[in-house]
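Z., the sequence and structure:
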Amino acid sequence: MKKILYPLSLTILLFSCTENKSETTSVADNVVDNAATPLSGSLKSKRGQDIIDQIYFELIKDDQNLKALDDKIENTNREAAKVISEYNKILDKSELYYRDARYHVNSISDSLLKKEITKAIENSSDQYLSKIKHVKDLIAQVNANETRMNDLYTVFKTKKTLPEIEKYQNAHPLKSDDLNTFINKQHQLLDELKNLK
């Protein structure tokens, strides 16, 4: 008897899963109203893309002031990276020199020579650090300004896009009817499975 019931149960389960698959598709189509908002198309899932940036991109398409602001911030960030990169090339070369010099000094066996050259390296390094302190402070200020600017822009973009996502939500109210219907079908199948002997 068990040998007959098992294949029968499996057949019923497979048949109901296939049937539910097509029903699930229609449920998904009817989950939200088909009301259109300007952002409906842009809110379709795009893998790897931030939805705030997607919505904001839609907004700046039609607003030249926002587009100009976005370009200005992007250009400023690009320029900051370029300027700092040029300074870092010079700073890095000097730091590399002093690190390598200290490494080479370790291989000197004569302790007097070693002490003499170590003192010369440290004096040179200290003088250089005091010379570039102002430049390093300015680089730190550029980085701090860039961080602050990006923070403020993130806040601005979020505030600007909040009303848009709320419009989208209002235009697409979720319905529970299809879910209730589907849950009832699941319960019927569960009851059938429980009653199988």
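Residues 65-168 form one domain. The mean pLDDT is 83.

Let me know what you think.
H.
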